[in-house]
């Protein structure tokens, strides 16, 4: 039996968080997303094209896949350690700070490397820090945000992703065009973005270590109650994998298929269109999903919109079609970002292992499906086939969400 005091500490939070708390939380996620989305969407591809122009698809795919693997493998261990941490500085706050420092220091020097294997080595260390931040920031939602505000908290987690991508693209393509300097600037900005939330955050008291919180991974006896959690994880993995498969190679699509005069500028334009649609859809979906408590339908609708965007690129490869696809993708992914984290938090089976479980499900979206699929499809076919496969993967994720039974 769990002691009464510990039960109270592990119960669902009831005190509403403030707007200031949500804004600082969003800013911390903004810093995290700078380190995640910019390398995957542009910086690694740009670096590979400079260091390895003939083998840029293979080398960029390797670096992106390597980062994903490090995150996926390390997150469960970090999650268990985070749940067990007991310090005056706080368990979540200690891991957030340590994660940002571990990620940003090597990140700052990636662009200065003379070969892509050296850059890949630094990116592996960066990924360990990213994993720590992901675990601790994700757990804060379950620790401190009541159920009726989780759609807003999910939006505060998701909207900064597209803002980081758009703002970061402006920095690295227009303001700081030197490759080495761009990595340093993004690292400094990411670290600075975490400071307000670290100052504001007051960790909940974790209480004594419970038998179920011992330092071990999931065992067969632990899996009772994880049915909906597992379906939610599969849905998230598929939708994120499809989205990343479609967007990771967009820079090369613009250059090699559409033959636009300035691919960097064209990609930035598409991202701004995507940002506007994404921000609008994310905030509205977060509010409506809290009001209606209907998470699954929002996730399914987001998958349909993103699949439609992929099909536009697959069968109508024009600049105008790319603009339409950016709008559809923005509406779809914005809706997904606003609702999915709330859905995940609602189906958590064990309060004493929040960091571990949220870390596992949040890291699962970084399984290196996108670079593997992209490398395989582009190795034997072309971009039409790549975006058709993208649509299939996303639709599968939208269908899978209806296997969840404990939430609407």
TrEMBL record:
Record PROSITE patterns: MFS
Source organism, top-level taxon: Bacteria
Protein name, as recorded: MFS transporter
Residue spans crossing the bilayer: 21-42, 62-82, 94-112, 118-142, 154-176, 182-201, 237-255, 267-286, 298-316, 322-339, 360-380, 386-404
Recorded coiled-coil stretches: none
Chain ranges of the Major facilitator superfamily (MFS) profile domain: 19-408
InterPro entries: MFS, MFS_dom, MFS_trans_sf
Primary subcellular site in the record, as a coarse category: membrane
Key word Methyltransferase present: no
Protein keywords: Membrane, Transmembrane, Transmembrane helix
Membrane topology term: Multi-pass membrane protein
Locations listed in the record: Cell membrane
């Amino acid at each position: 039996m769990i002691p009464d005091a510990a039960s109270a500490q592990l119960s669902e939070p009831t005190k509403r968080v403030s707007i200031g708390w949500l804004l600082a939380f969003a800013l911390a996620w903004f810093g995290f997303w700078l380190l995640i989305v910019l390398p995957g969407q542009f910086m690694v591809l740009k670096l590979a094209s400079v260091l390895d122009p003939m083998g840029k698809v293979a080398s960029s795919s390797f670096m992106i896949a390597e980062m994903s693997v490090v995150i996926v493998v390390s997150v469960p261990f970090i999650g268990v350690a985070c749940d067990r941490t007991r310090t005056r500085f706080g368990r979540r706050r200690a891991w957030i700070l340590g994660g940002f420092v571990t990620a940003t220091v090597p990140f700052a020097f990636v662009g200065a490397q003379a070969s892509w294997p050296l850059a890949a080595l630094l990116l592996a260390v960066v990924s360990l820090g990213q994993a720590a931040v992901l675990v601790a920031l994700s757990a804060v939602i379950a620790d401190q945000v009541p159920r009726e505000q989780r759609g807003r908290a999910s939006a505060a987690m998701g909207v900064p992703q597209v803002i980081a991508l758009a703002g970061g693209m402006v920095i690295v393509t227009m303001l700081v065009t030197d490759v080495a300097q761009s990595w340093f600037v993004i690292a400094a900005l990411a670290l600075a973005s975490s400071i307000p939330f670290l100052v504001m955050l007051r960790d909940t008291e974790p209480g004594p270590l419970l038998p179920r919180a011992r330092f071990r991974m999931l065992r067969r006896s632990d899996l009772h109650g994880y049915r909906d959690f597992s379906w939610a994880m599969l849905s998230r993995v598929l939708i994120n994998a499809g989205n990343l498969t479609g967007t990771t190679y967009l820079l090369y699509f613009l250059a090699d298929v559409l033959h636009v005069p300035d691919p960097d500028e064209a990609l930035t334009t598409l991202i701004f269109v995507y940002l506007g649609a994404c921000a609008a859809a994310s905030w509205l979906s977060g509010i409506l999903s809290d009001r209606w408590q209907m998470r699954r339908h929002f996730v399914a609708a987001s998958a349909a919109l993103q699949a439609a965007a992929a099909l536009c690129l697959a069968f109508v490869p024009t600049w105008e079609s790319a603009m339409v696809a950016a709008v559809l993708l923005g509406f779809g992914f914005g809706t997904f970002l606003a609702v999915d984290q709330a859905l995940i938090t609602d189906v958590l089976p064990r309060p004493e292992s929040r960091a571990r479980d949220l870390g596992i499900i949040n890291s699962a979206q970084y399984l290196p499906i996108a670079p593997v699929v992209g490398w395989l499809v582009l190795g034997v076919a072309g971009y039409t086939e790549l975006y058709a496969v993208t649509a299939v993967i996303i639709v599968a994720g939208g269908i899978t969400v209806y296997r969840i039974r404990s939430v609407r």
